[in-house]
UniProtKB/TrEMBL annotation:
HTH lysR-type domain: residues covered: 8-64
The species this protein was found in: Bordetella ansorpii
InterPro entries: HTH-type_LysR_regulators (IPR050950), LysR_HTH_N (IPR000847), LysR_subst-bd (IPR005119), WH-like_DNA-bd_sf (IPR036388), WH_DNA-bd_sf (IPR036390)
Record-level Gene Ontology MF annotations: DNA binding; DNA-binding transcription factor activity
PANTHER family, per database record: HTH-TYPE TRANSCRIPTIONAL REGULATOR YBHD, NITROGEN ASSIMILATION TRANSCRIPTIONAL ACTIVATOR-RELATED
Keyword set, alphabetical order: DNA-binding, Transcription, Transcription regulation
Name of the protein in its database record: LysR-family transcriptional regulator
Transcription recorded as keyword: yes
Length: 307
């Protein structure tokens, strides 16, 4: 019996439902876009599989009691299947769908506004939810499926569960008030960080740890007086004259008036910008579309900085 059930095809069930609805093989054939003999063949195959007559042939076509029972169940199943297939096709064509994006705080404050604008303009039918978090929390958001894709200063590692696509190593600039004594310089020697009151963003983030190691390798130990998590907090402290802050160059476009960014040199420092995903789990079409917009946006930022 199990073999017979497995051998029943969706086409056979569609034919039975159409015969039930049209009360004729001719009408069913028109509904299905098939020839009448093809519909008759499908019904005969279905009857052979279940071992009994389901359609009473004659001048008036009607279904047997068991045939009608199968047709009723099949109709509901076909509607559900067709609905799921339409939804899947709409997602593939980006006419529908959703994506949850885990974004580190620095990327959320600098890159995300322009990315969201471009994404919503290009894909207005896709629902995008931002999962705002610290960059070191992105991995957990992906593993728990709270987020489909991540964006932030994630450093590539040997973590087999996470795939990191580095898009750009943005320069690290020193942000200060435009009335600061260093504001007129084209670049600032990183050694001066030992003399300046520094505001440090999320010092435990992997990107900052890498930057700190590079500074230490050059015997540079910044005079950190404030440690904060949010870019907005650092900006407020700079405005209040409490110090200067190292941030990725991409932050410059979102800085308020009165604050400017100057490249750090000797050594130059890099801030990674990466798209992150689960290594062995496919991205949905919506998540793929988001990643594509991120790549294009990053290329725009790089072109502006290189110009």
């Amino acid at each position: 019996m199990e073999e017979s059930v497995e051998a029943v095809s969706l086409r056979q069930l569609r034919a039975l439902v159409s015969v039930s609805d049209a009360a004729s093989f001719t009408g069913a054939a028109e509904q299905l876009g098939m020839s009448q003999p093809s519909v008759s063949h499908l019904i005969r195959r279905l009857e052979a599989e279940v071992g009994q007559t389901l359609v009473v042939r004659g001048r008036d076509i009607q279904l047997t009691r068991q045939g009608q029972a199968i047709a009723d169940v099949a109709r509901r199943a076909i509607l559900a299947i067709d609905s799921a297939l339409r939804e899947c096709r709409d997602m593939t064509s980006l006419k529908a769908g959703s994506v949850n994006v885990a974004v580190g705080h620095v990327s959320a404050a600098t890159l995300l506004p322009q990315i969201l604008h471009r994404f919503q303009e290009k894909h207005p039918d896709i629902e995008l939810t931002v999962v705002d978090c610290m960059v070191e929390q992105i991995r957990g958001k992906l593993l728990s499926h709270e987020a489909d894709i991540g964006l932030g200063a994630v450093v590539a590692s040997d973590d087999s569960k996470i795939l990191v696509e580095n898009l750009w190593d943005s320069e690290v600039w020193l942000f200060l008030r435009d009335d600061h004594p260093l504001a007129g310089r084209a670049a600032v020697d990183a050694r001066l960080l030992t003399e300046l009151p520094c505001i440090q963003l999320n010092p435990n983030a992997p990107a900052w740890l890498a930057i700190s190691r590079r500074l230490v390798a050059h015997n540079i130990y910044p005079r950190v007086e404030q440690r904060v998590i949010l870019v907005s907090t650092a900006v407020g402290m700079i405005q209040a004259g409490m110090g200067v802050a190292m941030m990725p160059s991409i932050a410059a476009v979102h800085m308020p008036r009165g604050i400017k960014g100057i490249p750090l040199r000797e050594p130059g420092l890099a801030w990674p910008i990466s798209v992150v995903r689960l290594a062995n789990y496919p991205l949905s079409p919506a998540a793929q579309a988001f990643a594509a917009v991120v790549r294009n946006t990053i290329r725009t930022f790089k072109a502006r900085q290189d110009a």
